C-alpha cells in the first residue's frame, strides 16, 4: 500500500551537490543524518586548517572529480603512462582480439567456397585438339 518515493535525476544531482558542499565545509548539515553521522570524521579532517599538502590534493582530487578530466580531444590523458605501460596495453588488446577472434560478427555464418574455382587450376590447351 505504501511505496517508497523514488528520487528523480534532478533530486539526485542536487543531493550530490549538497553532499560535496558539506564535505568542502561550505554547508552546515545534510538532510540525511545517518550519512552525516557516518562521514562526520572525514568532514572534520578535511576541514582542518592544518591539513597536509598531500591530503589537500587528495581532497581536491576527489571532491572536484579531477580523475575524470579529459584532454581537448575528449580522451582521458595518458601522458603519465610510460612506454612500457603503453606496450603492455597494446599487447593486451592484441591478445584480447586474438582470443575472441571467433566471436566477431563476421564469424556468425559459415564461410563456403565453391569446389572448382575457374582461375585456380591450369587449363588444358585443347585448341589444337579441337581443330582436328
From TrEMBL:
GO biological process, any: endonucleolytic cleavage in ITS1 to separate SSU-rRNA from 5.8S rRNA and LSU-rRNA from tricistronic rRNA transcript (SSU-rRNA, 5.8S rRNA, LSU-rRNA)
GO cellular component terms given for this protein: 90S preribosome; nucleolus
Region (Disordered): 111-132
Biased composition (Basic and acidic residues): 111-124
Protein name stated in the entry: Protein kri1-like protein
Organism: Triatoma infestans
Organism classification: Eukaryota, Metazoa, Ecdysozoa, Arthropoda, Hexapoda
